[in-house]
Amino acid sequence: MLEARLASATVLKKLLDAIKELVTDCNLEANEDGIGLQAMDNSHVALVTVQLEANEFDSYRCDRNMPLGVNLGSLTKILKCAKDNDVVTIKASDDADSLTLLFESPNSDRIGEYDMKLMDIDQEHLGIPDTQYDATITFSSTEFARICRDLSALGESVKIEVDKQGIRFTADGEIGNGSVLLKHSAGRGAVRAPPASRSRKAAKPKVKKEAKRDPDDEEEGSEPDVANVESDEEDVKPDVQEEEEEKPEVDEDDEDEEEQEDDEAEQPKKRKAGAVAKKETNGRAKKAKDGEDDGEAGVSIILQQSVSLTFSLKYLLNFAKSAPLSKQVTLNMSNEVPLLVAFEFEQGHINYYLAPKIGDD
Amino acid sequence: MLEARLASATVLKKLLDAIKELVTDCNLEANEDGIGLQAMDNSHVALVTVQLEANEFDSYRCDRNMPLGVNLGSLTKILKCAKDNDVVTIKASDDADSLTLLFESPNSDRIGEYDMKLMDIDQEHLGIPDTQYDATITFSSTEFARICRDLSALGESVKIEVDKQGIRFTADGEIGNGSVLLKHSAGRGAVRAPPASRSRKAAKPKVKKEAKRDPDDEEEGSEPDVANVESDEEDVKPDVQEEEEEKPEVDEDDEDEEEQEDDEAEQPKKRKAGAVAKKETNGRAKKAKDGEDDGEAGVSIILQQSVSLTFSLKYLLNFAKSAPLSKQVTLNMSNEVPLLVAFEFEQGHINYYLAPKIGDD
DNA sequence: AGAGGGGTGT
DNA sequence: ACACCCCTCT
């Protein structure tokens, strides 16, 4: 049986707003690690994964692995019945034919209880290899959303080029061409040599498989398909959550405190997530007065080699709907390999994978 | 070649929002005076003119007259890619087959560059005579917008009557009749005898031609046509900008300092525009606390003789979309002559001309 | 409370 | 496809 208590409904609401248009039905995978979700989008082009960490819940109990097949539209409707600051309790009995959501006002003077029918969904669990990316760019998620929105007025595709100078998004279309260049920020998340951050990653157990995909993988995943997905269930979830935990730190310790953070890396994740949240708050307060509040925390670029990839803006626009979940987004790119768009938030993360268009000059 | 730099994208955005539904394609006329636009609306009923003064740009360079044929929809799309406080640079090379817009964030960490295809547009340049109007009413632009919106719920036409008491807008329709009366403000922009303000205007060179239109002009422009437009290119732009520069002052010196402002009238325009902007700011700050911020600066009426004219609300609604550009709007009316609706803003002005309906009451 | 974005209707 | 209205996010 599952019983998970979350202090605020707002994360769940934002999560569902983010993915409900990408995925109609899918299994929520509840287990001792927390609640996860993995699904191809409806047109089978993009892959979304979500993980809510068990130890980020106010309380969490899950006796066994439970695949909970939900219709995300229905779940969204039910979540609309919760106020943002309601305390949410998610319950499922062992037969798992329905999911119960309990919404309590903060002072418990109102309690809503909603039951949702579950469905059986046959869903292969895809293994997602832990890729070492050639370029990792972390910047304002609202800036990301803004760029995708702006450029989608011009064309259907965006070319993303990353080099030492910064990251450039370019779209061409009938009415004209547009390009947006974000320069890496001096003083904060500036361009950093990869080895420094990689060495920290080596401390993790069973991370990294191969850094690059096989060429034929990209062949068949040429356009509308996530190329580097494998069917290796065993090591997927650990990999994903370890890897995602990693990325924001790169930006974190760009400030001043690398060694300290490395120490913390051995500690429970709860502690680390707290640090992330705190830092984000600082970032906002710090930047609040300089007028430009999209530039929060600047643009961090970690570059192993320059990349140039082209993607469908339609999907990026969808991914950018996760911006309310996190102030920062991380784009992970290697040439001819699917893009990983990652959002970290206090309770977990959401990752999107999208294969590049081919012939992307 | 043209290169014009504007400290903030917001004026351009507002301008295009204001006219993009009225005009589809038109030439931007860049020359040493600045950037101008003149176009009939798509149904050839109303006339719009815009002027952005060269000396109000942060920097301005235009070597020769360049007609830049733009699709306003495309330009609007591109301007949506600029944030309000972005610095905008407009560039066109001498062959003028495309227009480049550069959007830089205030701290230059983001640079957007957009190229827009230009088109050849054959467009006669209409001469607009400098008319002395029988009634000139200056009041809150949002009030104007509100009245147009409110009355358009009742009928398709509005009768505008101006006399010493004030200005009355009346609409009749099936569900009932409505009328809004704005009284001239005591203490501020009150009704003023025309000679006083006319004498100031007399200080300008080459102003005023004839005060009234020829009757046959109105005949052919009876309903859907701007009647008093002549094909006299020479004196149009100077006249327009002189005249428009004049109007807000009427309201300005209603405060206490008539003579001083008359002195300034001889000074360069740059100086005067600055004064206008400053006064507007004061007006906002002053009124901020009395709750009614539509009544800013009151209602100023300069009346030579009473007028009563009827106009299509559809067009007035469109004109009122310029309200974000200026806190004040000026209506200039003479019986049986097209209405001039004028908005002044720091970088220039926008004027709308609309012929009255006949049988107007 | 205001502005921007998304969705719906013409 | 464009315009208008409503809702959400800032």
Written account of the structure:
Chain A has 361 residues and is of the alpha+beta class. Chain A is 26% helix and 32% strand. Chain A contains 9 helices and 18 strands. Chain A has helices at residues 10-19, 72-79, 141-152, 194-201, 215-220, 236-252, 258-264, 269-287, 313-319; strands at 2-6, 25-31, 34-40, 46-53, 59-62, 66-71, 87-92, 98-104, 111-117, 135-140, 157-163, 166-172, 176-183, 300-303, 307-312, 328-333, 339-345, 348-354. In chain A, the strands form 3 sheets. Chain A has a 9-stranded antiparallel sheet, with helices on both faces. In chain A, a hairpin with a 3-residue loop joins strand 12 and strand 13 (176-183). In chain A, helix 3 (141-152) runs antiparallel to helix 9 (313-319) and helix 6 runs parallel beside helix 8. Chain A starts with a strand and ends in a 7-residue tail after the last strand. The model of chain A is unreliable at 188-295 (pLDDT under 50). The interface between A and B is medium-sized, with 24 and 22 residues. Chain A binds a DNA duplex (10 and 10 nucleotides) through loops. Chains A, B: Pfam families: PCNA_C, PCNA_N. Chains A, B: Keywords: DNA replication, DNA-binding, Nucleus. Chains A, B: Its main location: nucleus. Chains A, B: Belongs to the PCNA family. Chains A, B: This is DNA sliding clamp PCNA.
